[in-house]
Amino acid sequence: MDKKTGVYICSGCGIGDALDIAALSKVATKESKVPVCKTHAFLCGAEGVAQIKSDIENEGVNTVVIAGCSSRVNYDVFDFGPSVILERANIREQVIWCHPAEDEDTQMMAEDNLRMSLAKAGHIEIPEGYHGENMVKTILVVGGGLTGITAAIEGAKAGYKTVLVEKSPVLGGWMNNLFKQAPLKAPYSDPEEVDIAVRIQEVEANPDVTVYTSAEIKEIAGAPGMFDVKIEQNGQEINERIGSVVLATGAVPYDASKLEHLGYGKYANVITSQAFEELAKNGKIVRPGDGKEVQSIAFLQCAGSRDAEHLPYCSSVCCVESLKQATYLKEQNPEAAIYVFHKDIRTPGQYEKLYKRVQKDGAVFVRGDVTGITEDDDKNLLIEAADVLTGATIGTEGVDLVVLATGMVPTTAFGESLDAKSENEEKEEKPQGDTIIRSNLLNLAYRQGPEMPTLKYGFSDSHFVCFPYETRRTGIYAAGSVRAPMDALSSIEDATGAAMKAIQCIELSELGSAVHPRVGDLSFPSFAMQRCTQCKRCTVECPFGAINEDDKFNPLPNPTRCRRCGICMGACPERIISFKNYSVPMIGNMIKAIEVPEEDEEKPRIVVFACENDAIPCLDMAGINRLSYNAWVRVIPVRCLGSMSLVWIADTLSKGIDGILLLGCKHGDDYQCHFIKGSELAETRLSKVAETLDRLSLESERVRMEQVSIMDYDQIPGILDGFAERLEELGPNPYKGF
Amino acid sequence: MEEIKSVSLEMKDYIVSSGAETLSWCMQCGLCTNLCPWRLVPGEVSEAFNIRKMQRLGQLGLEGFEDEEILFACATCGMCQSNCPRKVEIINNVRSMRNTTVGAGFLPAHLRPIAGSIHANGNPWSGEKEKRAEWQEGLDIPAFSEDTEYLLYVCCTSCYDTRSKKIAKSIVSLLKEAGVSFGVLTAEENCCGETIRKLGDEELFQKLAESNIKLFNSKGVKKIITTSPHCLYAFKKDYPDYGGEYEVVHYSEVLSKLMKEGKLTFKGEVGKKVTFHDPCYLGRHNEVYDAPRELIQAIPGVEFVELERNKSKSLCCAGGGGRVWAEVPMGQRFGELRITDAVEKQADVLVTACPYCILMLDDACAGLEKNDVLEVMEMSELLCSASKP
Predict the structure, then answer these.
(1) Chain A residues with beta carbon closer than 8 angstroms to that of B60
(2) Which CATH architecture has domain B264-387?
(3) Nearest-5° angle of CA A303, CA A308, CA A314?
């Protein structure tokens, strides 16, 4: 495409008062010889927009560069359709709102921002979305419990064909075991009749849902929009073409045989909460040991939970379940004595009301560790516990029955662990790989492993801090207790959310667009394969398992699995990976576009590679709040810090720029990186930079990385000025002027 | 090895059956303890008494709450109760726990003469029954009859205590001036029983309540004006359960209403800075906050100033719950904090509207030697002083 560039400088919002607009225009007209350059005092108004549209229609402008506000605002106003290349140079939030008006350095900053935008626009090509063959819009739901049933119903209600696969012969899962369910509606104080049968009936009656019971997934191959799924049912193989997947295989109770210290297996009248549901379901609540009617009961909460020896985490539902079970006994016998031994009573949502009700029924709650359980001659159980609230060790009178409230273990936690690190040749330098456990649930035909990566404690992957429905396997969404401990109400909500995600994925894949967080991006990576050295970095580092390998060990991208973060681009040492609108040379030329003053001018320059997802909005917010910082910084937005190519560091420093700051998301266990590992990978790559810098006889401190979240805007001046101060101590980059 | 304390659900049930119906509602958050005025003073009782823990012992039926310092420490000020997130009726729980020992005949030594006097004389102040109406001499107060609208019920304290008698007299004078139709049955009355009930002597309280109700009903009493907020509480909240249903008001409520109707005016000027201490039983327990303020501010020349802790956050004088008879060392009395509050506001007069508060605050003011800068007055006294030019 032959580009005809139009530059439009807005002088509104104080820009015209702060900057020399005529001088800024010269950057476009004189330096870049841009054919069209106009200024307007209110560019986002109807007249300003009409002017741009008129130039597009009448003057043949097809590349629009707007110098004005941040690209995060007015994106709807400045939308000129898919055939026009648009680039926004931020001279408002990041320039005039943070720097003094009518100042030489502020002016230089604005001019550099325009230069960088012009360089970027020069590189952008209009992407065309990827269109796969035989794409379908069917949703596969794996697991037929409450979550799976809900996801299937919600998907079908929204007009999508849904395939529901359940391992056991009947649908309903865990809910089938219950006598009553914790209330799903106000006033949340009384247990309800279990309503799973109604839900099963609804899903089975829905003509858009195909249910396979006694069935398992043998293989899922392919990518969103075109997964090929092999289902085995009663020894027969069924093939389904699937658009996207909801993983809803749930959790199972912790193995109580490991809880002998609480009397399980030792005393006949110590049972699990699951067994207590059975007792209640069978009618009168009697002791399993001798059939005696239960008059007193002790619930032991956190039985094997929040316990370093067993499950270290809280399963979030056990307290509510025990409270619910307490009402069973009170119903049978209002005089019954009920003890609840707990670490804390945790009643998420509205279940405090159930807790209150059980308190009002007279139950005795004891906060503290159970220190011993013994049995008397009548098989009654005597419990000793440290009562935190009196500071004393207390002992109960004999109780008829002890119920252990055991936690939940996700179904993804069972199986042999596949150590992703073993494939990694430079172990110590690479971030830790995904943990994948062969749990035999999805059997993905992905080179990265057959199942979803797992989080701590074996729960299925989910971007739990920021986007809980998102996972590292595009088009596969985990919902319900397989991804985090949750109760029925939360599972229903989670299932609905996951169904919505599955639908978005199907529709966006069909359009050739990326899914979250780059919805609407039609670009996808292309590989200049003749230069590939088969180093596998792209396939290993892609957080989404988007890149398989062909039979010649070349990377084989799956465009609909791709999230367009560019991590592969940053990983590739040969720089063979690029996007139509994002590439290594594009950023390289933006760096080159920065004017670096001579050493004696004492105007240092700092390049900030800033993550578009959090760091850029953070910088914008610093501007909105009129926080000020040095005018030496030049901000280059990147899709993800993980897309950072080391060559940019060399480009920057060899140009005489004094320092480089990488501004990315928080990483670690509770990462906030939209692309999971991008900021962590950037940091790892950075550790190798020292070597490069030494070769150039430069201090490694000239490159720094900082983690910011979107709310950390108040820290921006400190981060930027602190770095500038350190650079001043180091002195100017000796390459200046070369 | 550490001693294992035995949980007794039987004991717990006994406490609950004595009236602690909300005992098990408590989730032990501890807000009560933190709001308790005992946290503001040092000393043995402060260290021993923790209202949260006391209730915990009750919940488990554990021994330990019956120690005198713990069981009889609570002044029933209601600061905890009115802020409890679980709406636990903490004072009822305290009362019931006291009842488990008092009901069995174990009353602390210093309280035995009090209970004895109530038994014998119908008042806790060891005053002879015949002398209950002595303070009325020369006042020409009509006896209550079918033709009078209100019964004026005077607190035992104001019937016998020399200082407190002035309160009764002032109230009578104000009621007369405002033209209220009222009469008295003082000589035949018994103590309202509010405090002895809080002390856990349910049996004695019942006896008092029944005799008073019998008297009131036989005379056709429909409306009662009380001089003390404690009597107000008893008649309003305790008596209905025993068949005593009356329209009960504190004298401040009556006077404020009449003042608004123009039937009571203050012509005398009081050029002083005046502050008001909300009695717990008038404020938190009966939610009368505005009436006394309206009256005080109607006095010409008064510069009214609020204490830092006021209305529902008012700090207890330590006179409730039987604490009026407790011996507390200097430096550990809530009243001292209250005097300091008033001095800090540079008030000339600290006004309150409760005979117990007057006893406690007078003591504290004298103890702190602040009489030269601060005068403690019952509201009726201040109003009386301003009623004539």
Answers:
(1) 364, 366, 387, 390, 394
(2) 3-Layer(aba) Sandwich (3.40)
(3) 55
